[in-house]
Write a structure and sequence with these properties.
The chain has two domains: 2-80, Glutaredoxin; 98-324, no CATH class. 48% of the residues lie in helices and 9% in strands. The protein has helices spanning 11-22, 64-74, 85-100, 102-117, 121-126, 138-156, 166-183, 194-202, 210-213, 219-232, 239-251, 290-303, 316-319; strands at residues 2-6, 27-31, 51-54, 60-62, 253-258, 307-311. The longest helix has 19 residues, at 138-156. It is globular, with a radius of gyration of 20 Å. The N and C termini lie far apart (43 Å). The structure holds glutathione (GSH). Residues 1-79 form the GST N-terminal domain. This is Glutathione S-transferase family protein.
């Protein structure tokens, strides 16, 4: 039995859940409290989620890509890596590269979108059971939202999205991948691998970021993702997606106009990326004093982010997926 320590809406967790399901391994999920992570403290490995504990071997391991590699090596049935060593290496490099770029940027922009449009959702994600669910009730939700929003903003630097060029870096990363997936069904070697699980899972938060979900050149990527979700029986939506869509329908608007970005510009060239050994992360420590700094950062994000309101329209890949089979 594999114990999976998780935050259920995390895209890194979904990556591991998908691998476990694909390999048909028995597993049980343990929801952790994000602020203390006390459930996982007994394990001597970096305290990020996902973390798995294999009760058959005693191994505890965190970091989604090493977890999947461990599962594939320990339980070789229904492999997620090709046999060919060069292709195996390609899959591994895709995973580490996507973990270190797409995963981090999509998390930043997904939470940014939630904070800009419906911050009350944060209480439902992070505090469903605190004080018997008090903070998920109407008025209390509104109180909890700015505090959670400030903590998250400082932890992941959402207020620096523009300075850090997050939209630009992500667009430059995804455009060539979208083109590639118009020609091929999978990222490596014509077969479904852990690289595809990584891409499709880590793209999840971008489904609520209109700059990307509505980007004309990225529709094929979301069509590809939807196809994999259907074929592999993955959840069509996550709770934060449902919450933000409902809010947009009520308001008739969404925040999708990124003032300084011009989509459709030339693709930047660039050197091939260096081979990676481990995935990078961007979690910054937060203490109670840094919360003082959190207020201006949070206010900047909510009201002066440079991302403006626009009419709420569905992305093309949802309205007419067939048009995207170019
Ligand atoms: N590279 C890691 C990233 C994991 C990660 O950053 N997980 C986040 C949740 S999405 C986490 O542990 N957050 C806890 C925290 O911020 O303390 C992986 O692939 O598993």
């Amino acid at each position: 039995m594999i114990e999976l320590y998780k935050l259920h809406w995390s895209h890194y967790v979904e990556k591991v859940r998908w691998a476990l399901d694909f390999k048909r391994l028995p597993w049980s999920g343990i929801d952790i409290v994000a602020f203390t992570k006390k459930e996982m403290q007994r394990f001597d490995c970096p305290q990020t989620v996902p973390l798995i504990h294999d009760t058959a071997t005693g191994v505890a391991i965190s970091d989604s890509s090493p977890i999947i590699r461990y599962l594939d090596e320990t339980y070789p049935g229904r492999p997620l890596f090709p046999i060919d060593p060069a292709e195996r290496d390609q899959v591994w490099q895709w995973m580490l590269r996507l973990d270190s770029t797409l995963g981090l940027y999509a998390r930043r922009l997904g939470y940014t979108q939630v904070i800009m449009e419906c911050p009350q959702t944060l209480a439902q994600l992070f505090m469903p059971d605190v004080c018997g669910g008090l903070f998920t009730r109407r008025g209390w939700r509104r109180l909890a939202a700015p505090v959670l929003g400030m903590m998250l903003t400082l932890r992941f630097h959402f207020h620096r999205n523009r300075q850090d060029g997050v939209y630009e870096a992500l667009e430059a990363l995804l455009r060539p991948i979208a083109k590639e997936l118009q020609q091929h069904n999978y990222l490596v070697g014509g077969q479904f691998t852990a690289a595809d699980i990584t891409l499709a899972s880590l793209l999840r938060p971008l489904r609520i970021v209109p700059y990307f979900s509505h980007h004309p050149e990225l529709q094929s990527l979301f069509v590809w993702q939807e196809r994999l979700f259907r074929e592999h029986g993955r959840d069509a939506t996550f709770p934060y997606e449902d919450a933000i869509r409902a809010q947009r329908q009520r308001r008739g608007t969404m925040r999708g106009l990124v003032r300084w970005m011009k989509s459709g510009s030339d693709e930047p060239g660039g050197q091939p990326p260096d081979a990676l050994q481990v995935a990078k992360n961007d979690i910054h420590p937060v203490n109670r004093w840094s919360l003082v700094l959190g207020l201006p950062a949070y206010l900047k994000l909510r009201w002066f982010s440079g991302v403006h309101w626009m009419p709420n329209v569905a992305p093309i890949y949802m309205v007419n997926p067939c048009e995207q089979k170019l």
